[in-house]
Every structure is written in structure tokens, then in C-alpha cells.
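Annual report, structural modelling task.

Input specification for the pyridoxal-5'-phosphate complex:
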Amino acid sequence: MTREDLLKLAEEYGSPLYVYDGNKIEFQYNRLKAAFKKVNRLKINYAVKALSNISVLKFLHDLGAGMDTVSLQEVRLCREAGIPAEDIIYTPNGVSMEELEGAAALGVQINIDNLSILEQFGTKHPKIPVCIRINPHVMAGGNTNISVGHIDSKFGISIHQLPHIKRIVENTGMSVNGIHMHTGSDILDIEVFLYASEILFETAAQFSDLEFIDFGSGFKVPYKEGDIETNIEEMGEKLSARFNEFCHEYGRELTLAFEPGKFLVSEAGKFLAKVNVVKQTTSTVFAQIDSGFNHFIRPMFYGSNHEIENISNPDGKPRFYSVVGYICETDTFANNRRISEISEGDIISFSNAGAYCFSMASNYNSRYRPAEILSYSGKFHLIRERETFDELIATQKLINIH
Ligand SMILES: *Cc1c(COP(=O)(O)O)cnc(C)c1O
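The model returned the following structure:
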């Protein structure tokens, strides 16, 4: 996607606007696949919550990806995108038995992350095989240290409760077809990941009916030059060898599963916004854009640092700007950032806006959520229209109290 492409899109569809590069998504997918080419059965389940537009889901499924979902609604979005139930895994956290049964009724792979539901589900539905989410309590400590911590994480069933899991499985006669972990952003380097994987292998060896082991995600992508990026190729090499060795010991070929979100879609996304006002104060120059944390919350919520480019004036003289939004709340995208000279009306572009950006957007200040574009090989497709006032009001009821 060139600057000219992006400017044309902003002109045609208005701002703010999300634009996703399908070729980049495809590149990342193929890169991950290639890193694990030595594993015969590989399943890459895309974490739907990162970017859940149904055209993106279909695009990834057409590439060969399965789907990792965390809510019944996400399961339904996948089904809406034409994705069969057998390509969907449901990995919720703390949902009701009712919702879990709803997902099971749709035929998707169930992943259970607490003992209470495991026991209830196994008692009621011993014939439906489930995956179990383990919390290996592994996190990176310091630079390359591995420490065993995070005992208070709400995710997964503690590895220390393995005897309890086994007792429930035996008592209910349920079958466990998968073992899973997703330690999320705790995992920064390969050594930590491999260490956690060993705990998963030890756990897997305790169950005799497995079909897959799911290593979750947490892969890092670079936001700016010099950022840490998970070396997927090196990890693929090391984990594949260990996985194949484990399958040999286990006596059966298992599927190696992953569920990346950010890795697949983060870098593919650009968020375009227009500068409404350039405001000079005694200490700061603010560039105030037609958006806020209602559309793009990551910089405020996580302190994430997204590259900003003035695509209307890429070769202008660089100046320092604080880029802020237009909602009535502090919504700072960047503090004193060097950007080429900004004039009112310029379009600026934020990088790494594919993952957890649109999917976290809200209607705060009663603004419409942006439109979304998916580009692929020079063609641009509108995959979501900008919201309208009718949609904003659709679920509200005007009543007369007095
Ligand atoms: C969010 C989530 C993922 C994806 O994490 P990324 O950091 O985006 O790759 C994977 N698995 C589960 C269970 C998740 O909740």
C-alpha cells in the first residue's frame, strides 16, 4: 500500500479509516507456516479478537488458518464467514456453562480453563472431547531469566492442580483431546517459550487420547526499529524438533497448534486520521485529529508506541508534535513526536493498527466507529461501512418517566 493509495482511500471513504494489507497478513501466515515446516500436522488458529471483521476471517481461513475464539459471538462470526465448526476452537475465560454448551452445540472444539466447569461439563457431556488450558506459571524475569511466577493469573488451570484435573477426568469418563497454554505477553523470548513448552509436554504425557497440543501465542512484532521481535524461524526450528521427539515418545503423531493474533495482523493495519486543528501553546504544538481512544485505544491503554507519518506531507521539515484526539478526555496518541510538518487537513497514518485496534473501538462521545478497508494485490475492498446515526440509536428506547 503506497502513500498515494492511502490518501486516495481517505478521500474516498473519509476519516478516520482502518486499512489492512492482505498481502502482509498472507506473508506473516506463510512465514509462521514455513517456520514449522518440519511438523507434519500444523494448525494455525487465528485469534479472532485481534481483528474480527468477517472478511478478514474468511481471508485467513482461505489461506488455511483455523480460528481461535473467545466468545459465542466470535464463533458465530466465523460461521457467518463460512468457516466450518471443525476449524474453530473456543477458548473462553470464565464464561457460563450455558455459553459453553452453546458453543459445544455448534460443534466447535471446546477448551476449558477452570476446574469447576471442567467437572460440570464432564459430568453432563462425557462424550464431547475437550481441550484443557493449563497455566504453566512461567514468565520472563529480567532479561533472559526464567522465573516461575504469575501464580495469581486468572487464566488457565494451574499446573499444580494437575492431580485434580486427572481425578475429574477419571471420575466423569470424559475425554481430553488437547492440552493448551497461552501465557500471552509474558513470553518475550524463545528460551522462556521452550521452558513453558516442556511443562506442557510433561502434562500432555499424562493423557492418552490427545490429538493436539496448543502452544497459544504471545509472539512479539516490532513497532519501531530496534524493537524486540520473536524470532519465529529459530523458535520453529527448536520447537518443531522437540515436538516431533515428543510425538515419537507419545507413540502417535499429534497436531501442533498455535493461535496468534497480533503476529498475523498487527503490522498489516494502518489507521488514518485527519488533522482538524494545529494548536500552538507556550510549550507544545498539538496536532488534534478527528479520532480519540474511542477508535484507537492502544497508546493510552497499553502505552504502545505506534509510528506516525504525515502522509499528506511526507517530505516536510520534521517538527515536534503531541498528537491528540478530539474526544472530551485525555487521549494522547504521542508526546512530542518528530513528524514532518503538519498542516490542518493533513492525513496522518498510524502503523501497527491491525491488532486490537478496531476490535477495541467504542462509541464513546457518540462517535461512529470507522470504516474498514482490506487491500490485496493493488485492489481495495470496503469491508465495513462507517456507522450511521441510525445504528447509534437502534438499540435505545426513549421512554417517558414523568
Ligand atoms: C488473545 C489471545 C491470543 C492471541 O494473542 P496475540 O498476542 O494477539 O497473539 C491467543 N490465544 C488466546 C487464548 C487469547 O486469548
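The chain has two domains: 22-264, 269-386.
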